[in-house]
Amino acid sequence: xxxxxVKEVYPGIFQLKIxxxxxxxxxxLAYLLTGSKEHILIDTGIYSEQGxxxxxxxxxxxxxxxxxxxxxxxxxxxxxxxxxAPSVKKMxxxxxxxxxxxxxxxxxxxxxxxxxxxxxxxxEFMKKWYQLHGVPEAELKGPFFPGMDSDSKNRKGSRKSTxxxxxxxxxxxxxxxxKGTETFDVGRFSVKTIWTPGHTPGHICFxxxxxxxxxxxxxxxxxxxxxxxxxxSKRSDPLADYIDSVNKLKNLDVDWVFPAHEYEFADLEKRxxxxxxxxxxxxxxxxxxxQEEPYSAYQVASNVGWNVGDWKDMDKFLRRSATGETLSxxxxxxxxxxxxxxxxxxxxxxxxx
Length: 353
Fold this sequence. Notes:
It is a single chain. With 353 residues, the protein is α/β, with parallel strands linked by helices. The chain contains nine helices and 14 strands. Helix 7 packs across helix 9. The N and C termini lie far apart (57 Å). The relative contact order is 0.12. Mean pLDDT is 88; it is low at 150-159.
């Protein structure tokens, strides 16, 4: 039996496992809501040759034709959710839908789509932004995303077919740009969009009230705490957005939560409370880390605990991710008037109590 096997998690709703080669996440969970003749797919997984084959195999296991998938709903713009969308669209001719904010604010959205000479390079912009917050130069060299074969200045190297495509270049514009107020109907299911910014600015959850199920993407996961990061120089408060979005799901009538990673679970309310408690504890941990002297976001990140392991054992991708998440907490505390920041003479932003 193939490792990626479809599971019917609710009558008429199927969970697909789309592999993420060479990743600790192992796979993305996509969901197919079936009707009599047409179907809805939620998320597609990351692009890889294995992912394409897994999608085909699992659609065959369900026993439907790919072309009967008419709508492809994307929870958010990260490559492990949107990356396979162009291939799935080609197979199905379905319309791809994403929140308008996630498309508008994606810094890479034109990084390979008719890029004009003289256009700014989004990866160079991101590199300078990480330097501003203390990430060492050595950790910004080489591939910027896992699975890239070259750095931001030379992206024409060959790509191993066994690797997932984390490099998000050349992804097409969705057919439908959503506002978070839409409803999509298929068969006996009516899926409501709920805009839940935080993990990304345009993250969406999808709620089916009659079945009492919710598809939470990366917003709510059973064990992992979703990454909530500041990732560019725009003034933003993603942690405040995330906390508001967690509270937005409270009091929904939900029996089962279907996330995009790990596994399905019950008791949404308890998980929401756990996540709120986690961020409350992390906020205090970060306040404690800057009591003695000003630190950059990178230095603060190196002095707090992470559930993926010790700082010294983390690779550069995880360290950058941790720095972005730490910065979201620092910005949150700054907006609460509990911390301040200053750009030092060395060009690095440092935070102090």
